[in-house]
Amino acid sequence: MILEDGAASIKDMNFVKQDVIKKYETKILNSWSDFSILFQLYYFDKKKKVQIELTKIHRAIRQFEELKDLSFVEDKVLNGYSWNNQFGTSRCWLGVYQTEHASHREAPQLFLAIDPYGIEYGLHNGDHHPQDGQRSVAHVSNAESFSYEDLHSKIIDVLDELKSERSEEPTELTHSPVSRELTKDNWIDLLADENIFKEKDLVYLTKMYELGGQATTTQLGEALGMSRSSFDGPILNLVKRIQEITGLEAVQRDDGSICYWCTLFEEGYEENNHFLLRLKSNLKEALGQTIGKKKIYETYSKESFLEEVFIDEEAYDKIASLLKYKKNIILQGPPGVGKTFVSKRLAYSLIGSKDESRVEMVQFHQNYSYEDFVMGFRPKENGFSLQYGVFYDFCQCALNNPEEDYYFIIDEINRGNLSKIFGELFMLIERDKRDEFVTMGYSKKKFTVPSNLYLIGTMNTADRSLAQLEVALRRRFAFVTLEPAFNEKWRQHMISENVSIEMISKIQQIVEKLNHEIINDYQLGQGYAIGHSFFSVKPDDISEKYWVDGIMNFEILPLLEEYYFDRPEIVKQLTEEI
Length: 578
Hints:
Blueprint: H1 2-5, H2 10-21, H3 34-43, H4 47-62, E1 78-79, E2 92-96, E3 108-115, E4 118-125, E5 135-140, H5 148-157, H6 159-167, H7 184-191, H8 199-210, E6 214-216, H9 217-224, H10 232-246, E7 265-269, E8 275-279, H11 281-291, H12 302-308, H13 313-326, E9 328-333, H14 339-351, E10 359-363, H15 370-373, E11 375-380, E12 383-388, H16 390-400, E13 406-411, H17 418-422, H18 425-428, E14 438-439, E15 446-447, E16 453-460, H19 471-474, E17 478-481, H20 488-496, H21 501-519, H22 544-563, H23 568-577
Parallel strand pairs: 9-16, 9-17, 10-13, 13-16
Antiparallel strand pairs: 1-2, 2-3, 3-4, 4-5, 6-8, 7-8, 11-12, 14-15
């Protein structure tokens, strides 16, 4: 369609993307922008021509008289303008390297590159070469300044550097080379060494094990909230550390190139041509024995928080500093602003990882009691016994690890009978009463809420069935209001969910109109606005139209009917207008 017309609108692009998405189970276009898609169409009839011209230059270099005594890999490496993961780039290049090297990445290369800034040529060391980053190149700013004679002259200038590597003695290994597979015991020993397996390595390998020992890079990335290319660098560095300590020989493919992934995984492809990884059987068994002994948590930072949550850095800093100072905060706001989501991510970001052992969450309700929360007598076979509640146990964990911070999240904090649930803890949770002990009524033992424990509550401001929080509790908490965030961060997130620009704009228009009416209604107000989380996750197997219609009819409409239960004519008017 686009090739025939010679042009494409945003609507055309969205139509093409939706058509492609329907053919795959995974979010195949997550990494593709409109530019990278259009580039492929523009470059389609030029790709072959570029490869032919690069091949001519490659062969011309190999045929220099001064290079006749050297053996080069023929017609590799030839990278046209689509070499960067097929996403399109403004740079093409070629590398001529000798057959004694497994790949160009380990070799010194006779090199030529072309980009908008000009042409550069000479000697370049691959990124896996011991002298990575060292190069000797000439540069001209335009094609008119470039000549065959200049290229020939520069290649001869760097020839001694190219040949000198052949005379160097090979470096001796600390251990004898290991050509066999590593055993399960080998892997267990390596997994225990923090200098070899870094925390981030254990995160993705543990997740791979949890996925049954095999997954595509896309599936692994989605499970960890990362891009599929995030694993390339860490895996390469991990394998190099393993080879260095064990002397394990590199795995070579049939074409002579080195397969670093093959040290950890069996290579293969699924039927739909997605790259599939399978853990080596011995490594999988070792992970099975190791995971239970050492819990691995994914790193989570302030930057991770800002990537996931639709608030800015200034707001994050205010909330984090307020929690650190006050020790107790309540995130309040209308339905759909992500209060629970934000509370857990806030805790993770302050911890530095998704350490679930240091985050506990409960949800209050009308039947929740002091006995559930702190302690109380429970029936058993021969009578009653004193049993401790979830908050008491969590406080003990914090007391036993004073150097670590702990976060206790109370979802829907205003749904419980707070005086009944907190009891004497009303005093102990105050910032200046932390680490002070009181005698508990049931156990007659001393108890305290430690200073390294932080409370985060959430409160729905649109729940009119609940009474206001007691003044005594309000004084002990700082209140942070979260508002609907249909902002640029939300828009970019929706684009990554493969929702069209047209539909994103439509959602914004609908919700902004509804929220304008709600906020300005004399019986409602800001606390009843519709939040962004209603429209944050689109299932892959549902078209965007059905997805939005379903949310409007089965989530938003019932909410409006509850808001205007005594004024149904307003609901009718609003729904007709949108």
